[in-house]
Amino acid sequence: MATPLLIAEKITKSFDGVRALKGVSFELIAGEVHALVGENGAGKSTLIKIMTGAVELGTGTLVITGRSVRDNNPNVARSLGVVAIYQQPSLFPHLTLTENIALSLETGSPWRSIDWKARHERAQALLKRAGSSMDPDRLVRTLSMPEQQVVQIAKAIGADAKILIMDEPTSALTERETDSLFKVIAELKSHGVGIIYISHRLEEIFAIADRVTVLRDGEALGTWNANELDRGGLIHLMVGRPITAVYPKRQVKHGEIALEVRSLSNRASGVSSVSFAVRKGEILGVAGLVGSGRTQLAETLFGITPADSGEILVGTEQVRVATSADAIRSGIGYVPEDRRQHGVVLEMPITANTSLANLKAISHRGIVNRGAEGRLAQKYIAQLRIKAPSAHTIVGMLSGGNQQKVALSRWLAAEPKILILDEPTQGVDIGSKSEIHSLMVDLAEQGMAIIMISSELLEILGMSDRIIVMHGGSVSGILSREEATQKKILALSLGHAPAGDKV
Amino acid sequence: MMKRFGQEISVAIAIAILSGVLAFVAPSYFSPENLTDLFLANLPVLIVALGMTMVILTGQIDVSVGSIFAICGIAAGVIAKSGIPALIACLAACAIGAAMGALNGALVAYVRIPSIVVTLATMVALRDGLRWATQGAWVADLPPSFQWLGLTQAIFPLVVFLIAATLVMLVGWGLNNLAAGRAVYATGSNTEAARVAGINTSRLIFLVFAFTGALVGLAAILNSVRFNQIPSNSGLGLELKVIAAVVIGGTAITGGRGSIAGTVLGVVLLGTIGPALTFLGFSAYWEKALQGGIILAAITIDALRARAANQGAGFAASRV
To answer: Which of A27, A254, A343, B120 is most exposed, with the fewest beta carbons within 10 Å of its own?
Structure first.
């Protein structure tokens, strides 16, 4: 085997006396994709941060490209060829691609004159190697999330990365975009780049990883060749307990129509003439590519961007939804996709976050009953198994999965009749993911109508009773659970009607 | 406890040290006369700071309070001179303040202009509008019923102390226990999330500005009745003092975090420093420089604490 690019041996790291990493060893070889898996809080981020120099090494040794690095810091790591790409691209939105790429790569005197032509050509060449033909003169803010991800990769290639760390790079990508990312990864591999790949999506890991290292509670359980593992085994390793059904879907009897939408349109956000109905107890999946109008549809339904034409009926009654408050009053709940921006209030404790959408229920004449609020929070902490030191913990201190559960508990506390979930398990670890899925089934059984938007086709296929597929702001097809396949959904997402299906 | 009320505790300690030194070096500082004078002189800052705390908590700022203060004072004097009872003049001052606050609020919340731009503009426009209207003249020959609100000079401080204490309690309690208070914090820490949770954030911001305006009106009248003339240039620099007190008291300038208790402590600390210097024999010219120093120190401590907390949070996020 080739000499390892990176060797981490018996790494221990404590924060405030609590050990985040307990003697972890890890090795990366040139030209391999090495997946690092584990639940949120297993220590993946800490290990990565030690490699990139963002966090000081506790005890143990770290050898990068043959050099022992005792005092690692971001500059040292970068000079040794360690580059990390995170799920949220860190680019300058008001600068062009050329400038973004140049800024991270060029060195020299601040007063040097800039060779724009060379910059431009270099950017174009790097983008091409990253598998894209984007115009380098575009502004980054005009790019979609996947396009920004490509720019990050171009930057990494330009920085002559030997060790490329990708932390959940596909969480904002659709399956098709993920495929093109994988092509780029294969290309990098063939050039001898070592890739550390972190993802909660196990199917991706089996698709591209050569080896897998599993972390649990700060310890490395071991490293396996990817072809030695199967899905169930890997989950068992990560969680420490077997998770029997990956999608705990149960057949629930559907009641009368809970929500009906007739020719709903919102010109500003591109939603055009959407019609569908969802029954009590039904889980309606909403599929489509990023930018197909799924989130915009949810935001229109929930009054964030009110519709400019069309009708919304709750039960049989037509309702006017001009603000979120109207939607809440009509019995609609919405757990948004971007929980940090829309979902939770990071500076407030779990208690205040849980009660925020339904303060009326726990207050009398506008005065909040602290006792009732505490009990409400406790109830959902227990029911959703939120891991937190207390109900008064500030939500910003929790992990992503637990923040998502707090966002969910806010809307459960509001007791909606119709619950819209936008990417309910994105960035959530596998244990929490399965808990959220079980909860959805329980809620459906209690008669709630659930609309679930998801980019993950397996989740859509596994959880939905019926699936509406969106393309370009309108519904391109509705599939029943029985007729739905990955292929049909993909075809509809791209705007093609599958043969033999009436749309 | 220490973590949550860190800034409040630091300020309280600073006040205690300052008081200790004063008690030792200049015991006359604590004479009832001096304390009463100090209280009355800082009353406008305190009352306006209650509103400003709410404005800053929602993530906004209001630098026009000094100009509104001047207008409300003059207006109250003019109304009182026309023979209208002092109490009505008082209410009128509050209403005028509320109206001007509402103007700020409407521009910020509904027209969506950043609050620093709106209130800078109204600060200048209102101040110079008043200068033009009064031609710089002061309101003199006030009716006797206006002086001390018709009370005696001895009882007046007691009455306003009760008014101020009640306001402090009400605003402090309300921010923590009313659904509307929750909405203030939620809007300041994450406006989008608050809106998605069904809070009418625009109306809330509008009302906070209007309420602050009303408090400025109240502060103006309680200040005017202490003198026999009302200057047309009062309240110059009031906004800076008020914002400084709020920030020193631990309210984050970015919104969402802070408390009324902290603000009260901030007012006390800022109000103590200047006179304490005089008592300790320093030149009064040092006062402003020292105030600036304290503000910088407070913001620096807050930033360092936030950084420490963030590192903790980053850790917790990877563990919990």
So the answer is: B120
